[in-house]
């Protein structure tokens, strides 16, 4: 290995070596390009300037504040406050305007749709899906099957007060547990379930007395679901003739719901969102196309 005063020169490239060698491979002492070296020095200088101007170094219980006193947290809060102020004019108009007039005013409609879309993604999409298509136990907001009505006013009321919540004005429709509470026997549940399935176009069990099932339906179910199984929106009772069964459209699903029903809960958004956002959500959900 050559010493510092007598470095070896590579015969092929004509460049001095560093004196390091591994398995017969010698390291050439090629200097960094000048532009790269100068740029490196600039970044070091910029780091020093940054340390002086901006918060940088942690201390025992605080940190260096910097000459400029910059604070990204305060800047973010200021930007948020400015955003609220910028939208307040439209928000105030939304609150003061009827839902029908919002839909008829192009400028307010655009604001409501944009605001509603953001609110839907944050609050509603986890249950109803990003496109409002729903899932088992969560209604599809794009179809024309609405338990409590699909008009702008109906949707707004549902958003405000929720379903089966502690809100004083909540919408409350409760399906009795005919099996769990022993309101009907197992055979009677089988009969009425098969009757509903037969009317809905589903396969039924062989040998079941559908006439007895019809009588049981008329005595126990028709008051809410209607004589023709068409449902009654005023009490939140679904149509049993619809293709959109919330908990599955099959004979077994019908039996399970009659025996021990699942009664879902929707939050009352008046306790969580401001009036302008709730109105915007109403317009946005109605825009899915399934509204009445």
TrEMBL record:
Q: What is this protein called?
A: Cbb3-type cytochrome c oxidase subunit
Q: Which family does it belong to?
A: Belongs to the CcoP / FixP family.
Q: Where are the transmembrane segments?
A: 35-53
One Pfam match, given by its short name, reads Cytochrome_CBB3
Cofactor list: heme c
Protein origin, superkingdom: Bacteria
Q: How is the cofactor bound?
A: Binds 2 heme C groups per subunit.
Q: What is its main location?
A: membrane
Annotated pathway:
Energy metabolism; oxidative phosphorylation
Keyword hit for Heme? yes
**SUPFAM superfamilies assigned to the protein according to its UniProt record, in alphabetical order:** Cytochrome c (SSF46626)
- Assembly with partners or alone: Component of the cbb3-type cytochrome c oxidase at least composed of FixN, FixO, FixQ and FixP.
Q: Which gene encodes it?
A: ccoP
Cytochrome c domain segment(s):
111-200, 208-289
Locations listed in the record:
Cell inner membrane
Print the keywords alphabetically.
Cell inner membrane, Cell membrane, Electron transport, Heme, Hydrogen ion transport, Ion transport, Iron, Membrane, Metal-binding, Oxidoreductase, Repeat, Respiratory chain, Transmembrane, Transmembrane helix, Transport
- Function (record text): C-type cytochrome. Part of the cbb3-type cytochrome c oxidase complex. FixP subunit is required for transferring electrons from donor cytochrome c via its heme groups to FixO subunit. From there, electrons are shuttled to the catalytic binuclear center of FixN subunit where oxygen reduction takes place. The complex also functions as a proton pump.
Q: What is the lineage of its organism?
A: Bacteria, Pseudomonadati, Pseudomonadota, Alphaproteobacteria, Hyphomicrobiales
Q: Which species? A: Roseibium porphyridii
């Amino acid at each position: 290995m050559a010493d510092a005063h007598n470095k070896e020169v590579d015969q092929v490239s004509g460049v001095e070596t560093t004196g390091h060698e591994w398995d017969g491979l010698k390291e050439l002492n090629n200097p960094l390009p000048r532009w790269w070296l100068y740029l490196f020095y600039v970044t070091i200088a910029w780091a020093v300037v940054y340390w002086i101007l901006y918060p940088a170094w942690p201390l025992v219980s605080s940190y260096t504040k910097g000459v400029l006193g910059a604070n990204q947290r305060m800047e973010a809060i200021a930007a948020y406050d400015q955003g609220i102020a910028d939208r307040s004019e439209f928000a105030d108009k939304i609150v003061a305007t009827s839902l029908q007039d919002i839909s008829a005013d192009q400028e307010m409609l655009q604001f409501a749709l944009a605001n509603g879309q953001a609110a839907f993604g944050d609050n509603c999409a986890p249950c109803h899906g990003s496109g409002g298509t729903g899932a088992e136990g969560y209604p599809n907001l794009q179809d024309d099957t609405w338990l409590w009505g699909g008009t702008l006013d109906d949707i707004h009321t549902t958003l405000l007060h929720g379903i089966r919540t502690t809100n004083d004005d909540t919408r409350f429709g409760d399906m009795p547990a005919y099996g769990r509470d022993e309101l009907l026997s197992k055979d009677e549940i089988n009969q009425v379930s098969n009757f509903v399935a037969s009317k809905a176009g589903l396969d039924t069990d062989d040998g079941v007395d559908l006439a007895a099932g019809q009588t049981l339906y008329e005595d126990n179910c028709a008051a809410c679901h209607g004589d023709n199984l068409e449902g009654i929106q005023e009490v939140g009772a679904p149509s049993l003739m619809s293709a959109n069964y919330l908990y599955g459209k099959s004979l077994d699903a019908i039996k399970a719901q009659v025996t021990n029903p699942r009664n879902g809960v929707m939050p009352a958004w008046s306790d969580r969102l401001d009036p302008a956002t709730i109105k915007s959500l109403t317009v946005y959900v109605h825009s899915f196309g399934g509204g009445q």
